[in-house]
Amino acid sequence: MASTFAYANSALRDQISLKEKRSIFMVFWILVFLAGNTLYLLYTFNSQQLYNSLIFLKPNLDKLDFFDLMWMVGITDFVLKYLTIALKCLVLVLPKIILAVKSKGKFYLVIEEISQLFRSLVPIQLWYKYIMGDDPSSSYFLGGSLLIMYSLCKSFDICGRVGSVTRAVKVLCAPQSYGVRASNQQCSEAGNICAICQAEFREAVVLLCQHVFCEECLCLWFDREKTCPLCRSVAVETLRCWKDGTTSAHFQVY
To answer: Where are the transmembrane segments (predicted)?
Structure first.
């Protein structure tokens, strides 16, 4: 599962970096690859009804020990990561007329933050079941104490992730602009060639450091960096992670 995730995550990030030159066939292959792995996992463990965990329902297990808990949380977390990458693939294949390439990074960010929030919510009912055990009355005090501690830790985690989702939505709704439109003279002085894509300028913009780039190239660059590609002067105050299409490899244990 880890190798499947690493491959799909890396392949998607590479395709996003290609912008309009991305391969539809490769994106389709990533979707098929993830769908096949997901269906195989759910079919293999069909008797346990692991898919119930994805919608906050109880899986079909007579007894839940710590090994079973980690196993179920891990599989569920990877399946949700697969779904996250699949959603980003769908955003990637949208034509430019529907969604501009320079705006897709904001959608990747929102998808990732919502995914991390959802992934943090899914294990709750599994942990509650494990902490309380099959017979809550036999360890009521200990189970109750652990449940309170878990709930407090989880509350802080969820609050932080809700805040991240809120900030991501604000980024999505806010207009995105880097620098100002470059004049013909500024483009000529820069050689009429974008230093990022090594092609003629398209909708050229000039930064405060007076370096000129394609607006689309610049937006994709600032999805990963916050400095000018040439002089490395700081051009944006805050670097937003996940706008490059990367999906977090963090394992949501609890």
So the answer is: 23-43, 69-94
Element (H, E) at 174: none
Question: Cα(176)–Cα(179) distance, rounded to whole angstroms?
Answer: 10
Decide: 86 and 18 in contact? Cβ < 8 Å.
Answer: no
Identify whether the C-beta of residue 109 lies closer than 8 Å to the C-beta of residue 172.
yes
Q: Which helix (H) or strand (E) holds 134?
A: none
Would you state the pLDDT for residue 240? Answer: 64
32 exposed, middle or buried (CB, 10 Å; 0-12, 13-18, 19+)?
A: exposed
Q: How far apart are CA 70 and CA 65, in angstroms?
A: 9
Please write the tens of the pLDDT for every residue from 102-132: 788 889 999 999 999 999 998 888 887 777 7
Give the separation between CA 204 and CA 183, rounded to whole angstroms: 8
Q: Quote the CA–CA distance of 223 and 63 in Å, as a whole number.
A: 46
Q: Which helix (H) or strand (E) holds 181?
A: strand 180-181
